[in-house]
Amino acid sequence: GNNMNIKQIQSPPPAEVFGLLQSRVDGLTDKEVSLRLQDSGPNVLHDERRFSWSQSLLRHSFNFFSLLLYISAAFCFVAQHLEPKQQMAVLGWALIGVAILNAVFAFVQEYRAERAMEELKKFLPPQARVRRQGREMEVPAKQLVPGDVLLLAEGDQIAADARIVESTALLVNNAPLTGESRSQPLTAAPAQHRVLDSTNIAFAGCLVQSGAGVAVVFATGPHAEFGRIASLSQQISRAPSPLEREIRRMVRILTTVAVSMGVIFFTYGFFTGRPLWVNVVFMLGIIVANVPEGLLPTFTLALSMASLRMARKNVLVKSLEAIETLGAIHVICTDKTGTLTRNELTLANTADPIHGEPLTECGLTEILEAALVASQVHEREGTLAGDPLDVAVAEAFERQVGPIGPVVQSTRRHFPFDLKRRREAGLLINGSRAKFAAKGAWENLRPLIGELSHCETQPPTAVSEERLCQCDAIVRDLARQGYRIIAVASHRLAGPPEARTDLESLERRLTLLGFLALEDPVREGVPAAMQRCHEAGIRVVMITGDHPETALAVGRRCGLATDEETIEQRVLHGDQLDHLSDDELSQLLQTGLSIFARTTPEQKTKIIAACKRLGWIVGMTGDGVNDAPALKAADVGIAMGQGGTDVARESADLVLLDNHFTSIVAGVEEGRGIFTNMQKFTSYVLTSNVPEIVPYLLYVALPVPLALTVIQILSVDLGTDLIPAMGLGQEPPEPDTMRRPPRHHGHLLSKRLMLLSYLFLGMIQAGWSLSMFFLVLFQGGWQFGQQLPESSELYRSATGITLATVILMQIGNLIGRRTLTQSGLDRGLFTNKLFLIGIGVEIAFSWAVLYWPPLQAILGTAPVAWQVYLLAWLGVPLIFGLDYLRKVLAALALNH
Fold this sequence. Notes:
The chain is of the alpha/beta class. It has an 8-stranded mixed sheet, with helices on both faces.
């Protein structure tokens, strides 16, 4: 049954459906069910791919960077074997430790996101009511098979695609599939519609709003419409995020530099006749000095911390890189209903049919009572349930008149909403008083109107074509303000009609009571958020399934369009979109088109593709299954956490827990801050590479001892640099972050950053730390060209002071890196706890390197006179001062 065409299932009369699906009124037998279950598979969306610990850990443990560390570690163990007294094994274990640390960070984050998804998984109904072998029973939804007879009642989540064979005023809400929250009446009659508008098919994942029905299942699991769209979104593969590309590029550049330098020196050593193991150790030293081992763990940590900050702002981050991508975004495509608006209809205005003025007290009571009679609402657990429009009417009635109970109880008959007639009606009988009321679209009620009234106590006005044209104008005027307009009419009956009286005879010569104008109010904070996007150079595009008038009105209230702009200028209709080529659409987007109305899910993906063709980074919000493919196609998919569907959340990178557009803007600011911070700590970490590399260059070129050993270099890269770098990753976004345009392909490792770190800051550090090295050597009586054994006290003191100086100078560098233009002290030293801890560690470590025996033993250092240690401290104001001077001069040059 799973491969049957929907058209074949829509068209036959109910009696033939059972035969077509090889079923019967009594339902299937247990034997048939088990056979079909083998054939069609369980009714689940996809084979539950369990989150696999091992796979995730392996994936993170063997990326390019980790492999590099493992290879270096292997070299260390070989070197240890060749020459035990070099202590190379310590280095090997340190490198393996970093690789593992990095993998664990990334793994924990993925696991956290996965847990959050499990929580959100509880969307499809676990149970379904069916008739099997003539008995009604509850079965697990995943055991449904084609041919099962499904029983539907109000509040049920439909568990599989099924054809209706009996219907009692059955209303469903297909919002999860169509994205539009409006009720769809279902009947058992044959039909020929486009799939999602079908009037006799209930779709999996949708909700029964009211009424009851019996249906025969024809598609389950991945074959159902819900499953089909879900698998569509799984097929779209996602390109690597801008940040992933940046980090790969950075690792590539740094590794290439490191390895090529290592190889050059190895070759040089080989030809100058150095022993092999000296050469190996030496090559490793160069590579270790060049590769910033602590950088990647710092990246992951900075992103993890940002994801925790985002969680406080109600944004659940599923993939870490998405935070940074959000910061680089050029355009946000947003849904209207529920994201910009509250997704609740409320009565905003009324108009009497004669003057178009708001209704008076007496007219208002009358129109609300009539509208309530033509609605279907009831109370469930203290809240009103039913169609959103009917609920809005009932709420207005409660505010204006009183409890709805008496009216609802006296409403004897209800004529449900009919798609062709676009109206619904009801009959109120209260003792001898009888009244027929209808509500619906004005153009459909217009032919039935016999007179106009705006209050029971005043005589009604006879109808004329002129009067009706006045009403048309009133409706047009309200529609232009973005309201959803409902016309309400009633008809006093002499007495209760006979039970057989048909709708046609009741609908004659109705009295028009007026118009109700309903709106879905814009969420508070949205216009301000739009304004911030505008300042930040981010385009916002609204994509909705709604009417162009409504879309434009909401656009005006949000600040996407001005009051003067017309539909032709600002809004593109879905039908027009279909006829545009991709290039034409891109051109329209460039000229500022910002509202798409009456669009289908497929068209969303087309709009995203057009934005991407312009080189824009695109964020997309959505909540329905129908949004899933677009969420996956965008650079950042943002799903709604409240009332959204699982499939949408599965496909997204971020989930807005409060469905609020302003949370996206908070996320953009966070993402931009993160990128700037990453540049700050990259620059900080790379600076110390220079004083680590230069000693090796001098050692090869001149007859001088090596100023830093490999293990000392690692104590900086993996020890003292880590906490301050994390502190830089925690800095709040700079005040003007949201007033700058989105970065266009700015690289993490830009030329400017490399020049600053290597040729300016790094050279200052190398100069001062090496002068301290030679100062100690010359004081100790060393002469140029003299060989110093590694075990000698003098050599160990000299390397010790070099290491201590580099560590101290990183303090001055750290403060300068906090801002691009100011001194760095202006942000307050005590605002960032990690800074204080980091500086504390650096001071303590610089002292312990020289004066604490256990550390001396590990790093191969020895003490120096305290005056020399104090002299090393001059490096702090030296690097900070020169850097600040550079910033001041740069600012002056800019202003000229």
